[in-house]
Amino acid sequence: MSAVDAPRLPEASVRSGRPGRARFFRSELRFFRSELKLVFGRRRNQAGMAALAAVPVIIAIAVRVTEGPTETGQDPGFFSAISGNGFFVALAALGAELGLFLPIAVAAISGDSVAGEANLGTLRYLLTVPVGRTRLLAVKYGAVVVFSATVTLLVAAVGLAAGLLLFGGGPVTLLSGAQVSLAEGLLRLLGVCAYLTVGLCALGAVGLFVSTLTEQPMGATIATTMLSVTSFVLDSIPQLDWLHPYLLTHYWSAFVELLRDPVALDALRPGLLSALAYGVVFLTAAWARFGGRDVSN
Amino acid sequence: MSVLQSRPALRWLVPTGAALAIIGGGAAVGTFASAAEPNLPERSAAQLLVDLQTAHLDGLSGTVIKRADLGLPSLPGIGGRGSAELTSLVSGTHTLRVWHAGPDQTRVALLGTLGETDVIRNGKDVWIWDSQANKAQHTTLDESGPTGRPDHLPTTPQEAAEQALAAVDPSTEVRVGRSASVAGRDVYELVLEPRDATSLVGQITIAIDAVEHVPLRFQVVPQGTSKPAFEVAFTRVDFERPDPAQFAFNPPPGAVVTEGTRPEGRPALPTGVEQPTVVGSGWTSVLAAKVPQLAGTTNAETDGAEANLLRGLLGGLPEVNGEWGSGRLVTGKLFTALLTDDGKVFVGAVKPERLYEVAQSNR
To answer: Do B114 and A277 touch (CB under 8 A)?
Structure first.
């Protein structure tokens, strides 16, 4: 294990007495930064992010190589538009990775967040210094949020770069057949990333809760991934349509609403509310579980 | 905090409370929305019908949800959520967005999970845009030409209501139901009830906006239930005149554009099939057709993949027989179909007994 896995002592909080507000924030920031360094510094996380970033490159190259009139009546999502405009590589990649890759990445980070420390035996040390357990959870979840946003933007950015390089850019044709400038297209892509990040953060909240249940980070990661996959599977069974609105992943595909003209923002609201509901319930559940748990390792 | 530290189990009250509040809150919003019965001045059914016909609609835009639960066996490739194909409208749940600015400017967008089909009418131009196939079809209308609607399925409450009202005749009891709220607006409910007991339609309700006199919801409720089998309803509606830019369509570069020729007349029937006839009138009319190819497919007389497939499909249907002969019965929530062994087909929104009656007289 590398050096960053060593127990990290947020030294500012060790000092007794009442720290000033500024100092409190500084110590908070330092703790958060050290957590980010842990998440983004790990070799396995970097490898995972590289794999995520490879998908848009593969898509772009594959479409470039097989370019030509493809007689496909049904397009799984934005693929046929790629050869006309590289912009769509980003969307095709996001759409392709949303089903499994992005959820796995978020599940790995959030599942590892508490269980990983417990497994390594570092959780005990973290808690011997007066780091509040609530504070520890907040920092852990903060890192999950940053990671979710980073991987989403990473996939979009790599897709965009690969697409523009291989196919060039230009005005973006929306689903409604209208065209907008590339700049507005980029703005909409940013909106898509933000919306997907919110959905992934809800999954991250579930993962954080599962992570407080166990000391096996792999178990937590697999359980969280299974949950997201199960949610996708249930969502595709038409006989269960009464259940669909309650599924974690049901509204994720609503990101395409941002690619219609005009954009109906109220179509995004159920997805955001659903993510908020999942977030609140599972974050408080993680807090309840972690606060009352005996930490022996 | 100290209580929480000494009794950690109490912490669980927070997530449990949050979950209950969210579920309860969601349920309460739904219940209040459906239970709210706005206080509206009384209006007779005739007044409502006149309101409907004289409604002057300057403009409208909104979101429409269409649900069809006809009790059909689910067929592969037809219907379902998320499909943006117009033919998929026959079953499943679909979301449509509509814009309307006078009779010659309308746009209907059928939203799919990863695509969209638009039917846009702007003056004489009608465009049908299919984002997944990247195809645009253009049709120019004659002065008095019908709209370029590709099929006869109602896509907006207006159309649905018009089709239903056209069917009103002495066979129907028309009354005013309770007032309700649709898409946040107060509505009157016009209820049409078939008088004939052999009809499968229990009632048709049309919710009419109390101020704008525009239908906002259309439901078909089968007999013996209160759950609609077919519903077209606004979930959001705005009576502002939409931006004219909504109706301007320029096919994007790269799209396949076809100059559409409207299909003339009816699609040709397969050879050997006679033009179907309608028996009876009103709610209990029955469509009768002869399809000789069907005869014998239920037995193992004919060969070939097609016959095998057909046999497989038909083999699962319940066998019925009577004085009229024997055959197989398809029952949905709003229709019944009888396929006789001698190659006749009877279809109607009626109970099977009525079909047997027609089959008997058509021997």
So the answer is: no
